[in-house]
Amino acid sequence: MIGLKVFDETDYQAFIDWQQEATEKDLFSFMGRTFTLPVTKAQLAVYVEKAKQQALPVELYTVIEEQTGEKIGHIQVAEIDEVNQSAFLNRIFIRKASRGKGYGRLLMEEMKRYVFQERGFHRLSLYVLSNNQGAYKMYQKAGFVEEGVMRESRIFNGEFLDLHLMSLLSTDH
């Protein structure tokens, strides 16, 4: 089982530690151009401050493995739109040591519970890059449906990547 806690300064070191083995490609797939390696506490402070300044609310969470209490990941719930009853998932990350153990699936289930049951929203969306097929398949298994592709809309190391828009409605499950 997993839990969520609001991301704050007590989570910075775990976040930095997760990125120790990351490549630029790993970081780009997870955060776009938000950070550069090595990730620092100063970069994280700017990230948190920018989240507070968005027109539509943004919530940052650390993912916790409940049995051990270990911090295993991060997620951002963004563009929280009360009027249109929708939210966007961004910055979805499970640390390397915890991958392949079903935590991504559990995190998606928790996000569906939070957005649809707790918040009472109707729509949950996310983007995934074309070079992240593992995440794409996991989102499909969680019930997300591809709505469209922004062809060659991101560039990384001279290669253009497609960005897939996926969504899930409260009535889909």
TrEMBL record:
Gene Ontology molecular functions: acyltransferase activity, transferring groups other than amino-acyl groups
Claim: Transcription regulation is one of the keywords in the record: no
Presence of the UniProt keyword Signal in the record: no
A Pfam family annotated for this UniProt entry: Acetyltransf_1
The entry's keywords: Transferase
Stored SUPFAM superfamilies: Acyl-CoA N-acyltransferases (Nat)
Positions of the N-acetyltransferase domain: 2-167
PANTHER family: ACETYLTRANSFERASE, SPERMIDINE N(1)-ACETYLTRANSFERASE
Name the UniProt record assigns to this protein: Protein N-acetyltransferase, RimJ/RimL family
